[in-house]
Amino acid sequence: MEKITLELPLVGIKVLNDSVVGFENVDVYHGVSYCDAVRLAMFGEELLVKPGSIEVCKWAPAVLGLKIPENSFERGLLPRLDSVAGLYVAPLSRFLEDAPPDVVIVRGRPTQMKRVMEALGEGALQRTYYGEIGKTALGVVDRRFSLKVMLSYVSNRMMALLRRWKRFDDLIRTAMRTQVLTGALERVLKNTVADMSICRNSTVIPFEEGAGNVSFFCVGGISWGGNLPANMTSGFPYDLIEDIHDRLEYPGKRDLHPCPGMNPKA
In this predicted structure, what is the pLDDT of residue 242? Predict the structure, then answer.
């Protein structure tokens, strides 16, 4: 069958519900956001995202189950994971056959995402949030939602330009440490443009629904995740990617079943 070529490596996510036993030798992430941790994994790093790891973003900790929601803003961030001990984030090639990731994040141009979805088949994609642009791109690319799609692309392109200006990046980091401003921004963005594209849309929704999801990038995905505004993000349960892995070509690709003895945490 025809190959599907992607320009970006695939990133695996393992949700560690009860403990981080077995992952003690993995570097603990400390930084601005979950988007940033996924970005680093794309470049080959293995990271453990734990409670307290995310220092700036106010969305991801509650959404990813890294903290108990403490106010109306955090309680309104849905869907979200139950309390977890951490998330192991690494290139897909680092995972062992007997310890696969729960979710695989795939990013690329809309045409590439379309080919991946076609290879998987419609039944592999989530329907719960169909048509809600904040959570998914599925069902929104039609006449009713054309303005929202355009707003997503425009806002992402503006953010991609502004992030090159260090003072703007510093300003965003300072502002996003403020709960009041973050909550206000969430009310503006909700159901208007893509929101929480990497943490919720590409990780939580595929994990909770057991089905694939495709999303436009959010502001954080562009500014902190370093993603191109013309691209899209998606997340799929591991078994779905395993089914079509032979058709995928991407940087750093290896057999999904490394030789016995390979240990990604050594």
Answer: 95
